Protein 1
Amino acid sequence: MDDAVRKITAEDINPRHNWGRALPAFGTMGVDFEERVDYRRLHNYRLARARMALEKSDLGALLVMDTNNIRYLTSTKIGEWERDKICRWALLTRSSPDPILWDFGSAAVHHRLYSPWLKPENCKAGLLGLRGTVSPSFGLMAKHAGEIASIIREAGVIDMAVGVDIIEPPMMFELQKAGLKIADGQQVMLEAREIKSADEIALLNRAASMVDGAYHLVYEQLKPGVRENDIVANVNQFLYSHGSDDVEAINAISGERCNPHPHNFTDRMLRPGDQAFFDILQSFMGYRTCYYRTFNVGRATPGQHDAYKKARNWLDKAIELIKPGVSTDKVASVWPKAEQFGFPDETSAFGLQFGHGIGCAIHERPIISRVISMDHPTEIKEGMVFALETYCPAADGYSAARIEEEVVVTDRGCRVITLFPAEELPIANRY
């Protein structure tokens, strides 16, 4: 491997963020009068982080088919429709400074023209199984497995395992037939992705600022006669018009649907006194949000206020603990046990008192939950970005409060980047 490549570190490419300044919430335009997100610096940082994680592991190469990992390694994206098709893949070996990308048809030609950070010869067209619709018996998987094995052999790491994130089973079988030992590569990629650069933090902050605006829209529109799906449609329009590249989901839950939490939306019509909560999951330049807010329509009962205060208190206790060196079990310990808020066990309550890393995916490291953190704590580190979310059912048996904040871990604590007001229960169109 070239010495110059080996010596590059993520820290060389991305200076430590200056926590003494406010986090930037840039617009979408490129400008000549101030530094905004440097996308080539972002690419170099992410590739360096992946190289470092690969070299630290026992793997000889990473073969990624997860769209989030492909974007992390190659800084390419061909549309949200690719997310569930396993139609692209990328390979990074220990001895190569650059990833090789196999793309969907003409996208490979496009990237040779418009993605100069990738070597043209490393932009290849490929076709596997499209989730089984192309039969393995047609031989395409065997062909590409042989091609991948040849590249790995030439890289001198054929005797080491290849880390794979997601894969169609017949493709894994063909790789094994080609002489490759397959291992878990997702853990290596998640290790690479857990510490965010200043550019990544700026993109996450920008994505959160878009949802700040979306929640102001929700606050204005929450009134009797409006349906959950009306809110979902209008928020989709708002986000796409402000630069979102993927509105993954908008959970809209109101009234009697609040408890237990169904994690979806319907055409239910809002009524006076409804408690309603929303989760907006969307992406700006690949960086995502997971951002809950609870409202009441017109008025609120004492029980609804009480549920909100409890959810807010549990959340604030967790935020107070966030700083480098704290372990995730300490954070999970301030949240109520499942039985204390109406669930039979922690698995049934999973995701309600919850923390999760956020970046190119909704769920990255760390995961914070009583289900896993009490027995398997992990360390919180400077530069992590994650969401903390709490849930509390109301005494009426069907209302509930759900609040979530995204935080950036600084050198001494954390910064909250989800800024739509949530200290007290917002009551929209009060009467």
Protein 2
Amino acid sequence: MSDTFKAILVSRDAEKKQSVEIVDLTEADLMEGDVTVAVEATTVNYKDGLAITGKAPVVRRWPLVPGIDFAGTVIESSHADWRKGDKVILNGWGVGETHYGAYAARARVRGDWLVPLPDGMSPHDAMAVGTAGYTAMLAVMALERHGIVPDRGPVVVTGAAGGVGSVAISILSTLGYHVIASTGRNAESPYLIDLGAAEVISRDELSQPAKPLAKERWAGGVDSVGTHTLANVLSMTSYGGAIAACGLAGGMDLPTSVAPFILRGVSLLGIDSVMAPKAVRLEAWRRIGADLDLKKLSILSRSIGFDGIIGAARDIVEGKIRGRVVVDL
């Protein structure tokens, strides 16, 4: 039938054993919502990798189409803000976790969850940024609100070769910050310097148990790793500095002390992209359009087709993906 389309479906059996398959769906199979979108591009985020591999309990409704973000064109709408033909972006809101997500040619969602595609940006560009890049921009905005401007001193970006890290480096360097990139993949140093990093350090410098306080090395930072890495980053943040925490690629624990907070006035800024209010999302995407050098998107992203999603999901969880992966539908 011509009205079917391919989708990735994750399911689990009575023993809670997870399986992943490619199935044919129709629009009648989609979940409730007041806007239907033709998905033109999506991406593979770390969270999507966890959902497809089952390495963490991301999926909370079974069966489910994963995929936490997409860009595309409205094909049907009963929502006041959207008309057929509008170009839109979706990030988060539980899509790909509790609501059918992006890994299908069609998505039906609530119009309140959508934001407009910025002028001059294609759906492919938007997904080269994706939720990882939108999260990176939320982190940069949080640092700015805390007064961490370029003349305050260097900023560190951990997990630098990953999606959040790659976009964070690109944005921060464009804005004039001296960026120190921390990576476990030393071979990626030329890539990180191409994105705008001024220095590249080995994650080994940050991966051991942290001292309560260490030598001050940076005024701020963006951390997507957590655990000992974040503890070390905090211990090395200068007086009055701030670190934006937005990920857990290394672990969910935070083995630190109160010393950085009470002796140096350091702030830990929590970044959530999933439920961020619409006004914050609109500002983040406006800033992405203004402050991200779109030429860098070709450096930090590569494209795959629908059939490459499952393999890329496995690779991203194993730390084998550099930058961003765009899925062109």
Protein 3
Amino acid sequence: MAMPTAHSGEELIELQQKLARVQSLLEAARRVHATIRLDDVLAGVLEIAAKELEADGAFFVSASPQWQVRTSTYGEVRDDWSRWTESAEMPGYASAILPGERGETLAHLVICRREPLSMEEADFLEGLALQSSLAIGNAQHHEKTLEWERVKMDLDAARAIQRSLLPHSVPETAGYSISFRSTTCYEVGGDYVDAVQLPDGRMMIVLADVAGKGFASAMISTTFRSSFRAIAGTGVPLDQMAERLNNLHWQEGVEARRRYVTAILMCLDPVNHVAEVVNCGHNPGFVVSGGERLRVGASGPPLGMLPGRTYEIEYVPMPEGSQILLYTDGLTEVFYEDEEFGEDRLMELILDSPTPDLLDRVWQTLTRFARGARQTDDMTALYLSRTAIPLRAGGETA
């Protein structure tokens, strides 16, 4: 039997050392992946690097502001540790790259110790950096997931609040039917519809569309609601209301002006059967009155775009069977491939006689036209019709 040589004994010791280093790396990887909190991962990696490699200290270096804020040193490091690449004195620095998903350098894991690293130690540091990169990626993904969950909860709450600000029921007006419908393309939107009964029996109605979509537009929509309701209660003429709303929005500042508001204001007089309408840079309102189909166009720019602008009232007679459809451009700008639904198609949906389910028909038609394509804008509409001639005291018709 061959006797073991000194050379084979040295090889055995070397293999045992390599095995121990691999086991240490496996244990280090287990510890690194044992937590999902990013701060804990970063701190744990530095501690493992310093202790396993018998270093005086360890730290991360990265150009990312996020890393500079969140990471710190571990152990004892020199005051000029941030200039580690310029140092050639002992105790020296050894480093390994933390690679990103696309091969980019996320950071450097750096240790400070008195002797240079052996080949096995350098391999350990490189392996630890690789495992650290994976663990940090998982922790960052976890943080983003938690952040998105918080954002989603806030958006759900904002959506509920915005829906609660819409009128839960439209005030009843004898001889008239009023309905509205609103859907947003995101959790919240910039469309707004409202109806307010005045003490003298008239009804103030508004349909508005804040420029843009999403949360910023929803905030402006809420502010606009407060302004509209406050001014509507004063009973000022419709053109003056538009002027006040315009100036108030302009005074909110530059950011608010970028979120200007197109709107149609309407005041219904159910006794004299007249609707006053002011269009502020909005899509034309559709009117069916006395057998004619009309469009009420804009008499001025959107609210909040230019200060000191004036607006004009258009008077719409409301004989029996009259209908008014107000809508935001989300309805007319529904597309199928490159074809737009458009105003003409929407106008054609208004029948010669009032129908209480008109808005249901509109939404069904838009869904069929788009062939299931995703909604890309907020969609809101209000439908007003004179359905019957109410009786006055004594049985006389109005």
Protein 4
Amino acid sequence: MKNIPEVKLGIVAVSRDCFPIELSENRRRAVEQECGAKGLKLFAAPTVVENEKHAVKALQELRDAGVNALVVYLGNFGPEGPETMLAQKFAGPTMFVAAAEETESQLRSGRGDAYCGMLNASYSMGLRGLNPYIPEYPVGVPEDIVPMIADFQAIARVLLGLRGLKIFGFGPRPQDFLACNAPIKPLFDLGVEIQENSELDLYASFNAHADDPRIPDVIKDMEAELAEGSGYPGILPKLAQYELTLLDWAEEHRGASDYIVFANKCWPAFQTEFGFVPCYVNSRLAAQGIPVSCEVDIYGALSEYIITCATGIPATILDINNTVPRDMYEKHPQEFNGYALHDLFMGFHCGNTPKCHLKNAAMKYQLIMHRLLEPDQEPDLTRGTLEGTIKPGSVTLFRLQGTADCQLKSYVSEGEVIDVDPQSFGGIGVFAVPEMARFYRHVLIAKRYPHHAGVAFAHAGKVLFAAMKMLGVADVAYNQPKHMLYPGENPFA
């Protein structure tokens, strides 16, 4: 199932009528050529916009080409009215960038002044209430501009994905996880649909799939994926039945939405009634770009989906779970080089992380639930986790959260998974984030974030931060360096 948008980029060059139109046209061609050299597909509208009629013509060219993300390129100073009208009337996300001067030999007859034009454009954006993507330094030669466009492609994928997204929730959020209980009004503000369902709806649909003829094929696929890690093959028929239940539910209930995610209740009654834990199925769907968050964490599912759109890589959701013991820290000085003990924590969940992100992944049982539901006996109801050590590499922690008063807030924090055995169970890894202790205290605790963090298996902070700003999220927190105090942080600590 294809569950993220395909971004079709388009570029329109704009030109102020007292500047040579050829300047914008030739500079746009140079950007096109650089995009081609870097493998970035880009439709170039033939019309260079000097006035409002040109803007209308260029918009039609973009529509005819199926463009859904627009780069407005100031090849020279640019006409601030028509160029911002172009962005206002375009149906998708928009980016503004401007051309730098290439050589001193052209500063008399070929100077474009786009550096100045971006200032006027920004004022006109404000008059029209626009919030396009503007890179940190939006002026450059083609070699500078093309990486900015590549970032915009990922940002646009996030915004387009949210416009077409439906979240399916099953069951009320657990009483002991009120942190996952957040208002849904901000979802509609983002253009996201939500359909909240009873656990009985899910149970009835699951039972209706009991003799589904597709189950054997799904079992074979699971066996091939797990290979030698198929520790409890006897549970696979139920897991296959459950996977088909979710996928069919999505197709039957997606309605007008293009993309779907799930936020499902997964304990404590789930095990006794369904007869398994759903973690492995959650991991498989996440690997297909269909996140399934645990504990009916609606904003967790949303955060995972945003990550998937931003990176094109399957995401996961983990508890910001436990500290790293000092003896483990001292035993691995080379691996932890450059990090203080308080920069470290362990990210954990029962077994929902896609297999592609795990070392030694294997089907196991949920140890905590086993203690509660079937102590002193062989695992039965609690089978179904996918466990392993999270592979080392770059990660980004991210969450978009709705607050009790229906405001949106977010955090983004880059770090890495360290190649150290966490010596524990579940899908788990040792994470390192610079200044994590202060981030934990002054963002996660002070701003009252839930324990679930979306995890991107790449450094995606630049794209995620920019996407949140384009969505109008005012509070986007990050792990601040030592010299930068958080609001309310004790300067004498």
